[in-house]
């Protein structure tokens, strides 16, 4: 059942096969119109020959009918926003609480990336882990999470992303782990739980030990800190010499974790220059939100199912967004989404960086080129699903219409309880922002 729901959400073909990209690699937004026109023209010729000898008014009338029908037909074949969910199942599970909204998901779906993305490599290989592996890991992780030194990690990671980081670090078994953005050290602690023996390099302007004076924090013994007076930004580190000192020659054995609220395009390019291949970004904000340009922003494009947005004030999307805002705190309504000239990409047409201390307007063309670049250098893009459905976690922040299906789906309270998740404070489920794992193509690094 879950499998069939998932497969129904995948893009059936690569967009390039859909003919939505120009042969020179440029995006041709008019290709759909052109297709409609040629279909209409062919229908017109056909209609004319069939009706030869009959009166012109009838032919014109019929031509209009056929053209309208062909337009509708062509549109339904090229609709980009698809429902990521089976609406009837969702309505059943959510019941009256979401009455009517479940069926609206179609216009505001999760951006489903081309087949090579969404956990699949260019060779068609998916990420190695399955939903079953995630479930198994989740059961194990709850007990570990209960022992965390920093119980209240406000402004840092909550449960969902802690699980994701732990799960992926444990699965990938790197020889070295690098984190950028440590705060009090919770994510360092999570990495340590995943890999008890592996060296960590942690970069953060303020050393986590500084927080120890005020309350719980975590400082790791087997970690090199570039923090406090020794702080160096990830992009300025001489990685060659650092890795050599640590005896690392195979960069595919290094995992880099970013939780530093920097422009993720900038970070990706820096990681690429250094030759790193396995990257995790903690705050992968949805379009229209967040304090930095995220991979989710970058990948959200017209040619991707569920991607690209309408700023038309009376559009279905605007209406649905307004409705969803009432239920989900972090849902983005039309006014938050769109700039003065209807820029919907990034955050109202801006590429934010460094906790929004820097803010640069970009054109749609630049934004689109960024997405082409990201696509060209990545083999895998995989968003961590939320650990459990909102009716179980009681979270009301991220909008489930813009996230993938949770690992424990709504309605499965028995499982949620059996895993020990019901014992956790509800606030630990508040921080889900589509944490993403990306694998850089070996040829690009
Ligand atoms: C959201 S917090 C990190 C939370 C932490 N990973 C956790 O799970 O608890 C962001 C951190 O990034 C740090 N930061 C700010 N600029 C940075 C930079 N250029 N490089 C690395 N870290 C940076 C901030 O000082 C802050 O500690």
Automatic annotation (TrEMBL):
* GO CC annotations, alphabetized: endomembrane system
Which residue windows are transmembrane per the record? 51-73
Query: Which PANTHER family does this chain map to?
Result: DNA-DIRECTED RNA POLYMERASE SUBUNIT BETA (PTHR36362)
The protein's name is Uncharacterized protein
List UniProt keywords, sorted A-Z. Answer: Membrane, Transmembrane, Transmembrane helix
Indicate whether Transmembrane helix appears among the record's keywords.
Answer: yes
Q: Where is this region: Disordered?
A: 1-32
> Compositional bias of type Polar residues: which residue ranges?
1-10
